[in-house]
Amino acid sequence: MKKNLLIVAALFTGALTYAQCDAVASLNEDFSEFTLTTQNAFPQNCWNASGAAAQGPWIYTAEDGEPANQYAVYYTHMAGANIAGYIISPELSTIDGNHELSFDTYKLGQGGNIPEGNITVEVGTLSDLTDLNTFESVAAPFTVTETSETHANIVIEASSVQKYVVFKFIADAMFNAAALDNVVWSEVANTCIAVETLDENFNSFATSQTTIDQNCWSASTGAPLVYVDGEEEDNNVTFYAANAINTAGYLVSPELSTIDGNHELSFDVYKIGSPAPVTIIQAGTLASATDFESFQPVGDIITTTSETISISNIVIDASETQKFIAFKFVTDNAHGAAGIDNIKWTAVTAGLNDLNKSAFSIYPNPSSNKNITINHNLEAKGTINIFTLTGAKVFTGELNNSGSQNVNLDTLSPGMYIVKIESGNYSESKKLIIQ
Hints:
elongated, six-stranded antiparallel sheet, single chain, mainly beta
C-alpha cells in the first residue's frame, strides 16, 4: 500500500504560470514521465495546478514503492486545511457526453502513519484555465481512503464551453495528503442510443451469474440476482432470490424512443426450480435505468408457473419522461427463481403482410353501443382477438372472408382495447375505444 509522503520546506511565492497546449482527445496519465519536484511542480506535460503557495495547499509530484511509482500529491501542510487544491488536466476536445473518466486516489502519510482528518476529491470541469470560478461539479465528492480506490465510469455531459477536467481536493485538518494517479479519459465503451424496437432472446449474451450488463440491457445489482443463463444458444434472463425474500430485482431494457402509446410489449415467463416456488413479475417503465423508484407498472401482476406463460399486446401509454421498459421480480421464497425470454417491443400496427393486403378498419371507433363493423379485403378466413391494454384476452372469434363483419361486444366494459386480426401470414392490430 502506497502511503509515504514526501515533505518539503520549499514554498512557492512567485506568480503562477499555466501551460497552454493543444487540445487532446484522450488521457492516460500515470505521472511517470513527470519531473519529481515540489517547487513549481506544475505546469508539466500540459497539466496545471492551483499552486503551492504558503497560504494554501501544495500540489506537487512524488514517488515511492519498489518498483517506484509516481503520482500527483495534494498536501495541506499547516496552512492549507479547508482550502481547495485543484489539479487540472490538459485541454480536452472531447467533453462531448461520450467519454468517461477514471482515476485512483488514496491518503498519504509519513512512515505509514496516516494523520487524522478527512479528505474529499470532487470532479469537475473548467472553461478558463486561469479562472477557478468557472469550476462546474460533475459528480458528488468522493471520500479519500487509506486504501487505493479506483473511481470509474464518470461520464461528463457534453459542453461547448467547458474544456478541462479538474480534481478539487480539500481536507479538514493540517498535514493531510492524498495521491492522484492513473487518470484515464476515454470513449465510453458500447455507447448506447435509444432504439425503436426490441426483439431479444438473449442468445447473443455471454452467460454470467453476476451481471447482465450487456448489449445495453442492465439490471439491479446485489441480491436478488438478475443474470443471463442458459446453454447451447438457448439463453434467458434468470431471477434468483439468493435469500433476499420480498425484495425486488429489476431487468431493464435499452433506452426506447417509442414509448408513444403506439407500441406493444410481449414476453415469456416461467418458474425455475423443482419444486418451483412462487415468483411474481410486473412489467413497467423507468425514467432512468438506475432509478428504480421511478418504476411505473403497466400490466397485470404475473404469478409464474412451471409452464411458460406468453404475455402479449401490452400497450404502454405515451410518456415524455419514462424511457426504459423494466421487469420487476419478487418472491417470498429464499430460493425463488424465474426466467424471462423472448422480449419484443413492436409497433401496434406492425405485422407480417406478405399477402400484400391493405389494413383492416373498425367502424365506428369509438363505439358507443358496443357494436362494431370490421372491414377488410382478406380472401381467407382468420381470427379476431381483442385484448386489454395489459394483455388480457377478452374476446376471440372467427373472421369471415366476406370483407365486412359485424361484431357484438356487449360483454366488454368501456375502455381502450387492442383488436388483432390474423389470417395466414397476415397479422395486424389496431386500437378500439368503447364508450
